[in-house]
Amino acid sequence: MPFASYPSEDLNGRWMLAYSDALPQEPLRTIADVENAGMPRIPATVPGNFELDLHAAGTIPEPFFGMNIASLRRFEKTHVWYYRRFSAALPPDHQAVLVFEGLDCFADIYLNGQRIGSGDNMLVEQVFPVGAALQTENELVVHIRPALEEARQYDYPPGLLAEKSGYEALYVRK
User: What pTM, to 2 d.p., does this model score?
Assistant: First the structure.
């Protein structure tokens, strides 16, 4: 049966995000972990876009004006944590899942401090069974890892022809 026929909670809307160019030594699994890590934090909209959230917060200029987009390359190595709290109705014998319709792109998902899965493809729906991690009151943390760093973990054959900064796209579904 399609997911729409089951009771559901829409998690679109207002979230928060935090970001850093350096990956903390310990994984940030809870909202308290993220908020205590000393990173910049701003409101976010989901579905949305990191750069548009930065612009809405006044952190960067209009990204689509002139050559402003070029200045955003500095964020290519940035780790981003989206997070929010939500309530869920728990019917008896529930088999709940979290469904992401576009998870950009390399992501680790934590529900109430438990890692419930990871994604590596923005172009397909990602479905994660949550099991006993789902409670009546919940917190969700999604760590988006930099696609550039993830892609550089792969070997590229000598003589490969692509634009200077385009090799990473060969292994990234973004």
Answer: 0.86
Burial class (CB in 10 A: 0-12, 13-18, 19+), 155: exposed
The span from the CA of 121 to the CA of 69, in Å, is 24
Taking CA 143 as the corner, what is the angle to CA 93 and CA 123, rounded to the nearest 5 degrees? 80
Q: How far apart are CA 32 and CA 24, in angstroms?
A: 14
Ranges of residues in the chain whose predicted pLDDT is under 70: 1-6, 156-174
Per-residue CA distances from 24 to 36, 108, 150, 152 (Å): 11, 14, 16, 20
Nearest C-alpha neighbor of 90 from the set 1, 11, 155, 6? 6
Amino acid (1-letter code) at residue 90: L
